[in-house]
Amino acid sequence: MRILILTPQLPYPPHQGTSMRNYGLIRHLASRHAVTLLSILAPGDQIDRESPLNGLCERVSGVPQPERTLTQRLWTTLTSRLPDMAHRLACPEFGDLLTQVLEECSFDVVQFEGIEMIPYLDTVLEVRRQGAHKPLLVFDDHNAEYVLQRRVCEMDRKIPRRWPGALYSFVQWQKLRRYEARACRGVDVVIAVSGPDAAALQRIVPGLPVTVVPNGIEMSEYVQLDAEGFLPPNSLVFTGKMDYRPNVDAALWFAQQVLPRVRSHLPDATFYIVGQRPHPRLDILRDQPGIVVTGWVPETIPYIANAAVYVIPLRSGGGTRFKVLEGMAMRKPIVSTSMGCDGFPVVSGREVLLVDDAEGFADRVVGLLSDAERQLALGEAGYQFAAQYDWSVLVPTLEAAYSAVL
Fold first, then answer.
1. Whether residues 212 and 225 fall in one domain
2. Which residue range forms the structural domain that includes residue 310?
3. Burial of 400 by CB count in 10 Å (0-12 exposed, 13-18 middle, 19+ buried)?
């Protein structure tokens, strides 16, 4: 098939969840189909001639991400019926590029990667109405976005200083319910990353057929690294994009509520917060003993590989998290909240340890740090679990969803 994929940033290098998913899908689809990639170019993105994307795709094109000021965001929040995510990447230049490509080539599939690309659905529909060829329209919803905003709202409203953020998320939650439902009704195939996300979409569009294609991983790329001494013993590692509100909350909660309890038993325990663009709210942690905020690093894999325990203390968010699969692929013992592993059918005590209160979380971490045999058992069970999520296993489900409608 000829497949046109629209992404909100270049999928390579795959440094965050969205780009990791998009690169994994493209990499495996391109092995059997002709893929064209059109992308918004986030700040720092460049279409490099040496990029693997050029070897995978027949064409890679993009336009720079439009600039939006805080004033513009506030104005659209107050005056527009559309959510912020519908405005963030909308620009005439990308619409013109998309129209040109659709007129030059007939595609079997046009795939929208994430809700931020849905502003271009009307462009594709218009070209499809005017042309003889009718490509299949696929919406890959990386999160049930209205659920994510609802959860963030419910978390932030409990803390008075976060009430402005809670109000913003409440408004976005209401707008996203309508917008996400419209997106699902406007396409031929809807993809969700988990069963709970699929159910959430069916609540706003009753009877909606949804195909679940979870986030996946290239197992072969996550090997045990011989980097002994990269981190000190009793290192606790959390990775993610550190300007993402659920990750910020998770880092603060662990650092302030869990880590002191851990260090009361193991004073040398160190918490590594690893990820790009740390939010200013994390600045208060920088000078605290036992905490390292790394900022951007070339690769997170060495940190995961050398963690004594990989922690996922998320209390809000949506979708399924690549960090779960990354930790498992590295055979790391994982302690997580229930939310941190949401969407994965894990069993607490078998592949991971799940706990939602600070005292219990600290107890599980301390227990693991003093039990090497338990660490190995959890790590091996997690590795076997993650193998089910190799992209080579998952992408055929997406292809079957195409074939069922074409």
1. no
2. 220-389
3. exposed
Length of the chain: 406
* Same domain membership, residue 210 and residue 259: no
Angle between helices 322-329 and 372-386 (to 10 degrees): 120
Q: Are strands 334-336 and 270-274 parallel, antiparallel or unpaired?
A: unpaired
DSSP letter (8 states) at residue 296: S
Q: Is 272 found in the same domain as 370?
A: yes
* Distance, CA of 380 to CA of 314 (rounded, Å): 23
For helices 391-405 and 17-29, angle between their N-to-C axes, nearest 10 degrees:
70
The 10s digit of each residue's pLDDT in 353-405 is 999 999 999 999 999 999 999 999 999 999 999 999 999 999 999 999 999 98
pTM of the model: 0.85
Closest CA to 110 of 138, 72, 91: 138
Alpha helices (H) along 133-279: 145-156, 163-185, 195-204, 245-253, 259-265
- What does the block give as tokens for 290? 């036992």
